[in-house]
Amino acid sequence: MTTSSCQRCTTLERRLQREKDKVHVLERLIEERSATLYEAKQHSEELAHSVESLLRSLPEAMLVIEDDLIIDCNQRAEELLQQTRETMQGKPFTEFVSLAQIDKLPCEVECNWLAGNQPIPTLSSAAEVIGSTNKWMLVGRDMRERQQMEARLLQAQKLESIGQLAAGVAHEINTPIQFVSDSMHFLKESYEDVKPLINAYEEHRQLWPEDIRHHIEELEEDADMEFLREEVPAALDRSISGLERVASIVKALKGFSHPDRDEQSLVDINEALSNTVTVTRNEYKYHAELSLVLGELPSLTCHLGEINQVFLNLIVNAAHAIADNHTDGTLGRIEITTIAIDGAIRITVEDDGGGVPDHIKERIFDPFFTTKAVGRGTGQGLAISHDIIVNRHNGSLDIEDGPAGARFIITIPIEQEGAQ
User: Fold this and answer.
1) DSSP reduced 3-state for 89
2) Burial, 123: exposed, middle or buried (Cβ in 10 Å; 0-12, 13-18, 19+)?
3) What DSSP string runs through 312-357?
4) Among 383, 304, 382, 389, which residue's Cα sits nearest to residue 344?
5) In the chain, which stretches have pLDDT less than 50?
6) Which of 85, 128, 143, 157 is least crowded, fewest Cβ atoms below 10 Å from its Cβ?
7) How far apart are CA 223 and CA 232, in angstroms?
8) Is the overall model pTM greater than 0.70, yes or no?
């Protein structure tokens, strides 16, 4: 091999080695870049998973909307709207939210999200997704619990005001009623004392001079003495009975409107129930006869004002149900029983008002749910009653079918541990 050939081979070998070195460098760069890209991909997937988990765990419902169509949602939206992500995807957001436009939405607005035919009040806001032209995130906060708390607070304030007024009126009435009652008892006793004297006059009438006797007989005839002798005692008895009724109402008002305290206190449930029945008599007396079957009960530690409110709501509810069902004017029946059983006190309120359909029972304790006509109910009475018994007193409030109507069953543990 010539010298020139050897030199050429050496040059080629050097070039080959340089190319191999370049290949090695490129391979290292590719490996490093691949590793970086893999790490970035892993980080991106982890970030996307974290974001998705975060969005799904948000307490607010969220819809992702593009060109007015739903493309995604979080778990809270599925729960609120009672739909799955798959059933909502591709549908106009207006099928589920009572908004006409999303791009002109103020910072926050009150509107209804629609779970089937049931409107759900929400506080909603929308934000355009950064980097997109027509992609929005709509967020809604369920306001039912807040509205329920506001309604409960408002009703409590109203009841407190009414209670204070009733207590003041009862106090003012109590003294004059006592005066009148004492005077009526005095009149009745005095009349009984005078009766022997009147009888003696009658027995010795013939002994009087004739002119005096005729004059007295004329006076007796003008005064209708026989009628008075028969009716005055009965009128006095009726007056005393009426005054006793007024006194019992005043006493019930004072007991019913007794200011509730923040802490629980020992309460006689039978007495509280009797007072509530007396106070609500005007609500049911034209529609139903009410009977109380009161068992022997221990004192219960509870919030008296709240328990009175529950009793009132259930009695009024029963009276309205009977009025709607007994359209022929016949009186219905409300029966209230109390019993101590298994470490708890059970109060049952049963009516013959036709009962509650099964499809309504599932929602009867929902806030703002009512089947009554506009102006006759707010849909809060049973919801508030359920909250008071279940959340405030660790008890239960259930509804079941009675023989001819509905039966509400309150169960409250005698030992109140951890009650609010």
Assistant:
1) coil
2) middle
3) HHHHHHHHHHHHHH-TTS--EEEEEEEEEETTEEEEEEEE-S----
4) 389
5) 374-375, 378
6) 157
7) 13
8) no
